Amino acid sequence: MESRAKAAGHAIHQQLVVFPLGLLATAVVFDVIGLLTDNGRFTTASYLMIAAGVLSGLLAAVFGLIDFTGIPKETRAKRIGLLHGAGNTVMIVLFAISWWLRGNAEENVPGTMAFVLALLAAVIAMGTGWLGGELVGRLRVGIDDDANLDAPAKFTTHISLKKQ
């Protein structure tokens, strides 16, 4: 099934998800650097990145929901889409709580709970990112009207580099 919301011929959701994923992942990295070096500039940058990541994640979610509503019921794609969306909702909420908890801290240094929530949210994002990749790459959701929305998962235990 092709995306219901497109810009320049491509699914808007797929174009927008790079922003929250990049911002939120980098925020966690900056937290680690800031805490290891005791440099408040990194934790302040992380605080701002989380705010931007949550807002851009909410925008991406709107277009993801539009595409999700077009997936036929009783398909593997619908089940994966539900897990993908629910997991991303949890992830965004955890990052938002982490952001809120560090709001009054000096130089926005995360406390233990704020840091743990951001780490947990980042782990969830890796899982939901994989699910999103499964939807687009394997099941062709948002790309192809002739997609096989019930294609089975294909797990491999190695990486193969094919010569072109």
Automatic annotation (TrEMBL):
<feature type="transmembrane region" description="Helical">
    <location>
        <begin position="80"/>
        <end position="101"/>
    </location>
</feature>
<feature type="domain" description="DUF2231">
    <location>
        <begin position="9"/>
        <end position="144"/>
    </location>
</feature>
<feature type="transmembrane region" description="Helical">
    <location>
        <begin position="16"/>
        <end position="36"/>
    </location>
</feature>
<protein>
    <submittedName>
        <fullName>Membrane protein</fullName>
    </submittedName>
</protein>
<dbReference type="InterPro" id="IPR019251">
    <property type="entry name" value="DUF2231_TM"/>
</dbReference>
<keyword id="KW-0472">Membrane</keyword>
<feature type="transmembrane region" description="Helical">
    <location>
        <begin position="113"/>
        <end position="132"/>
    </location>
</feature>
<keyword id="KW-0812">Transmembrane</keyword>
<dbReference type="Pfam" id="PF09990">
    <property type="entry name" value="DUF2231"/>
</dbReference>
<feature type="transmembrane region" description="Helical">
    <location>
        <begin position="48"/>
        <end position="68"/>
    </location>
</feature>
<keyword id="KW-1133">Transmembrane helix</keyword>
